[in-house]
Amino acid sequence: MSLHLEARREGAVRVLVLEGEMDAQTVGPFDQEMEACLAKGDVRIVLDCRALSFIASAGLGVLMGVLGPIQDAGGTIVLAGVRAEVRRTFDLLDFSVLFPFADDVTAAIRLAAEGARE
Amino acid sequence: MPVPVRAVRFSLPADLAYLDVARRFLAVLGDKSGLSEREVHEIQLVVTEAMTNVIEHGYGPTFEGGIVDLEFEVSDEVLVLVLRDRAPVGFDGAGPEVDLERYRAERKVGGLGLQLMRRLFDEVAFAREEPDGANLVRLVRRVRRGE
Q: What span, in angstroms and rounded, lies between the C-alpha atoms of B10 and B71?
């Protein structure tokens, strides 16, 4: 199982669609994409997690690594459609409090746009 | 009806490309044992973390041909997972709890796997077996069927 990543733009928001399983083997492209967003100042980010079926600490490490700089740059990372098992991993590390979660991608895009404006 | 799976041993290459193979295998074993989906996911998570530690820190990026042996044993009450390897570097399990604020400030990207293991299993023990010099990670917890 690999991790398939697709990026698109919705107005001022960068949407990354994640499909598959994120672990130390598959996290590389996601890491590069997040760092590239940060480098370009593209910091209003929605992660469409509806098809993400597994996340290990390697994925959470990447998220935690970019969260501070993205927030410092006035941005946000909103997680959309997160499955229960993936959410559980966030909960286990008390990371859920650090990220806004949205049930669907439309709401997440709105949250990301609003969050970045505040 | 669940088939009682008492103890199963299997070996995988110490290669990150086999993390998903371990998860598939554990899913089948968990299902056969009548474990809940949530419990299977938690087993997959801790084994992914433990295997990743062995591959990245035990064997390291230059070692070739390493093997990780896994044991899965479930009774009515207790679930035991054991990972055994012969990496040159073992791990003593020492490490502080992750401090979220510090983690965020330092952009630190390690130490989370051990935290997950500790939160999901009652016993997380690291040891070096003599005389053959194998490193061992043993994870034990009460079976939580239906929780």
A: 7
